[in-house]
Amino acid sequence: MKTVLVTGGSGFIGSHLCERLLETGHTVINLDNFNDFYDPLIKRRNIANALSYKNYTLIEGDIRDTSLLEQLFKNRPIDVVVHLAALAGVRKSLENPLEYIDVNVKGTTNLLEIVKKNSVDKFVFASSSSVYGINSTPFRESDSLPVQESPYAASKMAGEQFCRAYSHLYGIPIAALRFFTVYGPRQRPEMAIHNFTRLMDEGKEIPVFGDGKSARDYTYISDIIDGIMAAIKLKCSFEAFNLGNSSPVKLSQLINIIEQKSGKMALKRFMPTQKGDVAITWADISKSERMLGYKPKIGIEEGIDRFVKWYNNHKS
Ligand SMILES: NC(=O)c1ccc[n+]([C@@H]2O[C@H](COP(=O)([O-])OP(=O)(O)OC[C@H]3O[C@@H](n4cnc5c(N)ncnc54)[C@H](O)[C@@H]3O)[C@@H](O)[C@H]2O)c1
C-alpha cells in the first residue's frame, strides 16, 4: 500500500482518484488550494466522502508554496505524486495567460524540484489532448507536437517538457497522461456536458460554437481513473500516454444524446467558433492498451445517462 500525494484532489478528476485510492487501501494526501476557478463549495462537496476515511489527509495549500511542500515531504514518506492541480480550460487561458503559466508551469516545476530531492516511485502528470492542437487524427504519442492553439495547451506542453527534462536529469519515473475531454459525475460546471445539461434543465439557450460538426473524444471518469491507477504501477523512466475513448462524438450528436437522456429540449444559440478550440480530438490508445492495459469501458450513451442521473440527484 502506498502513500500518494494527489494535488488538486478536491477537483473533478482528483476527488474521484482519491476515492479510488482510498477504496483500494492506499493512504492519500490531498493538496488543494480551493481556488475560485469555479465555486469552491462544489469542491468541498466533492471531498465529503473521502473525509470519512482515516487514511485521508486534506492539506489546504498551494503547489507554488515551496516551504509547504518541503514540510509535507519532511513529515512523512511519500511514494507517489499524482499532479492534477492546474488551471484547466482552454477559453479562460486566453484571458489570463500569465496565471496559467504561474500555476501550470511554475507550480509543476516547483513540485518536480521537491520530488528531485525526495525520491518517489512515480510522478504522474495530468497533461491534455490539447497538446496535439490541429494534428491529423487519430492522435498518437509519437506525433510531433504542433504550434499550440491556446496558452492552456502551451502550459500543458511546457509541463510535459519539464517532466521529461527532470526525468532525464534526475532519473525520476514519470508518466504524462494526456486526458481527452473527461466527463461524468462532478464534471467541472463550465464544461460542455455539464453546462448544456444544466441550461437545458433550466429551459435556457445553450451556446453552440461553430456548426455542430466539431468532435471530441469524450472519456468517462472511471476509465480515466483506471488509466491513472495503471500508470501509478507502471515501471518507466518517462512515458506519455493518451487516455481517451478513441471514439469522437460530434457536438450535434452530443446534444441529441443529452436531449434523449434528460428528456429536455435544447434551445440552440449558434455562435462563431472560439479562438483556441480545435475541430476534433481523437485518441489512438494502442500504446496505453499495450503498456497500461487501458481499455475504456463506458461509451457515450451510457456515460451521459449516468451523468444526467447524477445531475438530477445533485442539482439542488
Ligand atoms: N477535465 C478534463 O476534461 C481534462 C482534460 C485534460 C486535462 N485535464 C487536466 O486534469 C487536471 C484536473 O482537471 P479537472 O477537470 O479535475 O479540474 P478541476 O479544476 O476540477 O481540478 C483542479 C483542482 O486543482 C486545484 N488547484 C488549482 N490550482 C492550484 C494550486 N495552485 N495549488 C493547489 N491546488 C490547485 C483546484 O482548486 C481544483 O480543485 C488538470 O490538470 C487539467 O488540466 C482535465
Account of the 3D structure:
The two termini are 37 Å apart. It is built from 11 helices and 13 strands. The strands form 4 sheets. It has a 7-stranded parallel beta sheet, sandwiched between helices. Strands 7-10 form a two-stranded parallel sheet. Strands 8-13 form a two-stranded parallel sheet. Strand 5, helix 6 and strand 6 form a beta-alpha-beta unit. The chain has a single domain, classed as NAD(P)-binding Rossmann-like Domain (Rossmann fold). The protein is of the alpha/beta class and 316 residues long. Nicotinamide-adenine-dinucleotide binds next to helix 1, strand 2, helix 5 and strand 5.
In DSSP terms (H or I, runs of 4 or more residues), the helix count works out at 11
Q: What is the overall pLDDT average?
A: 97
Report the CATH superfamily: NAD(P)-binding Rossmann-like Domain
Strand order of the largest sheet: 3-2-1-4-5-6-11
Give the termini separation.
37 Å
Number of domains: 1
Helix content: 40-55%
How does CATH name the architecture?
Answer: 3-Layer(aba) Sandwich
User: What do we call the CATH topology?
Assistant: Rossmann fold
